[in-house]
Structures are given as structure tokens and as C-alpha cells.
Amino acid sequence: MARAPHRAEFIKTKRGGLLLCHEGFQYHRTGRRADTIYWICSKRPECSARAITKGPPPDDARVSKAGDHIHAPNREETAACAVVNDMKDVATRHPEMPPANIIREGLADVDDEVLSQLPQRVSLKRAINRKRQAVPRNPIALGDISELPEEYQKTLGGIQYKVAVHQLLSLAFIPAEDVKDVFAELRAELPRQLRTLADYFKETYVGERPRRLRGNRQACPKPPRYAVED
């Protein structure tokens, strides 16, 4: 009876490519035909075992075939590579976080067997700093966003920053009496990273909607610096 395809797992190489990890073995990509990708053992030429994945990586790929190796698997080494990858991802997403904190949190629940396969802390710190140096600088103007690599143009939820900012700017074309209601709906859907910008729009241009108090009274909100009615 044929075995059901396993979900493929990947880690990133130093050059940003993908390394297939399957049952304690690692594979480099050798070719591709549509969504079928061919892999060979990372210990070539000593080991020429091959694997095949179906589906687009990294999220929807499945290992459909894997050959026999002439060496034992090293699950701890593979797990160690994944730990280092996770640290680099954290360093990219949280540039304000000190490398020492990233390393401490990344190693908190790691088994001793995996720890033995990891680089020294000094080497981990260097790897984190190198990863951060490769990250583009923060955009200053809206036009700078289009010059960033695509992976940095979106939030973690997949929403493009530029589209979200343009939605805020489009408030200028909304009738003045509808701006506050439209802004409230728009702000609720904005990614968390743009909430500060939305608050600036509210304080400067939009203002707050009146709030109901007890006794059917209304609170008087603070007027914006430049009211849309002006």
C-alpha cells in the first residue's frame, strides 16, 4: 500500500533559498517542472538519494517520493537549522529586539541533543546581525515602498502597506458628513502596524464621533486640528 504524501518542511539557506527537510535528511533542489520539484541529498556526492515534492513550496508542498540514503538521519541537526532560521525571522520582524534576547528566547525550550548541534552564541549573534544588515532600511516616503522587495511590502497578514495607506488618503474624496463613519470602518480593518498612522489622521483631520452618555447626553469630542468641514 502506497504511503500518503507527507507535508514538506523547509528551512532557508544562507542565500535565501529553500532546503527540504524530511525524516531527518536535508535536500538541495536540483530541478523543477511546474509544481513538481526534484531534490538531492545535501551530502552529495557521497549520497545521491533523491526526493520529489508536489505543490508550491513552502506551504502547500508534499513529499511524494524519497529515496534511500547511505547514511543515518540527523534529526537534531535539522532541528538546529530550524532554530537558527526562527531566530533570523524574529530578528527581521523585531529589529528593536537585542540579539541576546532573541537567542535566549530561541533556546529556551530546545533539547540538549539539538543544542549540541547549534553554533556558539557568538556565532548566532553574528548570524542575526548579518541578517539584519540585509533588511532594507525603513521607507521615509510613500514612493519608497515600491522600491522595497515584495516580501517587505506586506504586513504579516499579507496586506500591502501601500494599498492601506492609499485607502486612508482616499478619505479626501468622501463627503464631509460621511468621513467619520467611513474612517471608523477603515480603521477597524487596517493592519496593526498602521494603527498609529490612522490615529494621526483621526486627531489631525477626522476627529472623533460623539459618544453617548447616560441620560441620552452626548460627550463633546476634542475637535481635530484641521476639520474636514473647513
Radius of gyration: 25 Å
Q: In total, how many beta strands? A: 9
* Helix share bin: 25-40%
User: If strands are numbered along the chain, what order do they take across the biggest sheet?
Assistant: 1-7-6-5-4-3-2
Output mean pLDDT.
80
What's the SSE blueprint?
Elements lengths: L5 E2 L1 E4 L5 E5 L2 E9 L2 E6 L8 E5 L7 E5 L8 H19 L5 H8 L5 H4 L5 H13 L8 H4 L15 H9 L9 H11 L5 H12 L4 E3 L3 E3 L11
Antiparallel strand pairs: 1-7, 2-3, 3-4, 4-5, 5-6, 6-7, 8-9
Helix pairs in contact: 1-2, 1-4, 7-8
Protein architecture, described:
With 230 residues, the chain is an alpha+beta fold. Helix content is 35%, strand content 18%. The chain is built from eight helices and nine strands. The protein has helices at 75-93, 99-106, 112-115, 121-133, 142-145, 161-169, 179-189, 195-206; strands at 6-7, 9-12, 18-22, 25-33, 36-41, 50-54, 62-66, 211-213, 217-219. The strands form two sheets. Strands 1-7-6-5-4-3-2 form a seven-stranded antiparallel beta sheet, with helices on one face. A hairpin with a 2-residue loop joins strand 4 (25-33) and strand 5 (36-41). Helix 1 crosses helix 4 (121-133). The chain is elongated. The mean pLDDT is 80. Residues 10-71 form the FLYWCH-type domain. It comes from Frankliniella fusca. GO terms for molecular function: zinc ion binding. InterPro entries: Znf_FLYWCH.
